[in-house]
Write a structure and sequence with these properties.
550 residues, 5-stranded parallel beta sheet, 15 helices, binds 2-aminohexanedioic acid
Length: 550
């Protein structure tokens, strides 16, 4: 078992790490760094066949959060083999005992909530309050699944013949490969890891490189809290190409039985293709271009608050972030004016202060967002800030909290005058940008809501129940909010998308159990004879010609 950290995770500014065997060094800022490695079958993989990656604080890029030793395709495949070797020992642990492991994990995460949230804020720049909420989501997930260990129900089913009984059982799938993004570096992974482990699977987890320290911290809490034997949970830090190649090898060897992936629609399609070749269906949680419809009966103040939170919270880097507001022409001017004002007033900056949002997740996301800003057309009108693009001393944001030059911060941008053919309308922009367009009747609003072809989350603001239900029925989204923002799903509802947002798989709550278990049916004949299904079945004589007479 590894001893990377004690039961308490180091928080910001802390320079102690009980029980640590990790190599440490100081950077120019005097802060303690962490050398982060993969862990396979309980062993730290200190080599870096995939190179080294520096995880920096995106709000203060001179601060190194972790030095990461990246693995290779071979390392990924080795991890899958280790998971396969541990498979029987974990699936043989009675489900209620696995449920207790989940209970302990939940308590340990709770006891480390603030340290973990601080680490998340330092590593990916999510405002601290949101990071605490993210950690809460892990605890909620554990609270939900700890009892599932005592359920994990199968059924007893009547047979069509006497002295024969039918049963169904949920079996673990075997080895689950989990590949996650870094915008929710600990909560979204827990949506996979917790139920996968509870169901009796062994896991290989490949988190985003730029969120390695947060991932490693969660790994420690899971392994220590759950008392997980070596090989049950394996952590592989690697880039996308090596991971893909490693997954290909592992699938080919029959070492991976299920893939869970959260990330872009483009990579999701590749993973779906690869798993399909191995006759598997991946659990895919992909991007979103999430619409919010504002009807004439809407409470405009509420709708503005929701658009601000879901459009710009997490710097627009949730898969559930608001993409386009579709506003009825009768209230368009009023809504636009208020959203512009609210966005101008919104505090942006240091994620440890009280801000609506902080920096981009890392430089890569800043660069990609700039490509989208390059799609702004002369006919668009931009609102919401004192500038567009990166916030700097020469391109300042009024009211910015902190030093914009220290990190990767972008102005919030509201784009009005959007057209249906615009890339900014059709594609996920994954940054602080919200589009705005008008509509005249609800059918048009629903058509526009579905037009980009995603289907993760959609919201409507209305006081008319008929409109709310027509919208629910008409939108393609897996998650619909009435008078609530597009983001902020609760941890025990089915979560997942359609179209470009996923392949219909659902995470969370009882629904995710179907991802991590396979149904097995059993029949038991104790009649002492060979009773043949469909043939040796008793017939009742029905008189179907009978009619009532007046
Ligand atoms: C994601 O961005 O991948 O509903 C998930 C929400 C969060 C989850 C977002 N609870 O916004």
């Amino acid at each position: 078992m590894t001893s990377w950290a004690g039961a308490q995770i180091d928080g910001i500014g802390s320079d102690t790490c009980s029980g640590s065997m990790i190599l440490r060094q100081r950077n120019g800022m005097g802060r303690m760094n962490r050398n982060i490695t993969s862990v396979i079958a309980g062993n730290e993989e200190t080599g870096a066949p995939g190179g080294r990656f520096r995880s920096v604080n995106p709000a203060a890029t001179s601060e190194v959060v972790a030095e990461v030793a990246l693995g290779s395709a071979k390392m990924f495949a080795d991890a899958a083999r280790a998971a396969r070797a541990a498979k029987l020992s974990w699936s043989d642990v009675p489900a209620p005992v696995r449920g207790r492991a989940i209970a302990h994990i939940g308590r340990l995460v709770e006891a480390n909530a603030e340290s973990l949230a601080r680490l998340v804020t330092r590593e990916i720049g999510k405002p601290y309050a949101e990071a605490l909420g993210e950690v809460r989501e892990i605890v909620d997930t554990c609270d939900f699944f700890l009892g599932e260990g005592r359920r994990l129900y199968g059924q007893t089913v009547p047979s069509e013949m006497p002295d024969k009984q039918l049963f169904t059982f949920r079996n673990p799938v075997g080895v689950v490969a989990v590949i996650t993004a870094g915008n929710f570096p600990v909560a979204v992974p827990s949506w996979y890891l917790v139920p996968a482990l509870l169901c009796g699977n062994c896991v290989v987890w490949k988190p985003a490189e730029y969120a390695s320290a947060s991932a490693r911290a969660l790994y420690e809490l899971l392994v220590r809290g759950g008392g997980l034997p070596d090989g049950v949970l394996n952590l592989v830090l690697a880039d996308g190409d090596e991971t893909f190649a490693g997954l290909d090898i592992a699938l080919g060897e029959g070492c991976v039985d299920k893939v869970g992936f959260t990330g872009s629609s483009k990579v999701g399609a590749r993973i779906g293709e690869l798993t399909g070749r191995h006759l598997q269906s991946a659990c895919l949680e992909l991007g979103g271009k999430n619409p919010m419809v504002v009807t004439p009966s809407a409470d405009i103040d509420l709708a503005v608050a929701a658009a601000l939170f879901s459009g710009f919270g997490t710097a627009g880097q949730r898969c559930t972030s608001l993409g386009t507001v579709i506003v009825h022409e009768d209230v368009r001017e009023e809504f636009t004016g208020q959203l512009d004002e609210a966005t101008r007033q919104a505090p942006v900056g240091d994620p440890f202060r009280d801000v609506v949002y902080g920096p981009m997740l890392n430089a890569r996301f800043g660069r990609r967002f700039e490509e989208y800003l390059g799609r702004i057309q002369p006919y668009h009108r931009l609102l919401g800030s004192t500038g567009t693009g990166r916030i700097t001393a020469r391109n300042p944001r009024e009211g910015f909290l902190g030093d914009p030059e220290a990190g990767i911060f972008y102005h919030p941008t509201i784009v009005t005058g959007l057209r249906e053919e615009d890339a900014l309308f059709r594609e996920e922009t994954f940054g602080p940008l919200v589009g705005l367009m008008g509509y005249r009747d609800l059918d048009e609003a629903i058509r526009l809501a579905n037009a980009p072809g995603y289907g993760l989350s959609a919201a409507i603001y209305t006081r008319d129940p008929a409109e709310a239900f027509r919208f629910r029925r008409g939108v393609s989204a897996g998650m619909v909010s009435i008078n609530n923002s597009t983001s902020g799903a609760e941890a025990h509802l089915p979560f997942g998308g359609n179209g470009k947002s996923g392949n219909g798989s659902r995470q969370s709550g009882i629904w995710v159990l179907d991802q991590f278990t396979r149904w097995q049916s059993m029949n038991w004949d104790y009649s002492g004879s060979l009773q043949k299904a469909q043939m040796d079945v008793a017939e009742l004589n029905a008189d179907e010609s009978y009619r009532l007479t007046d």
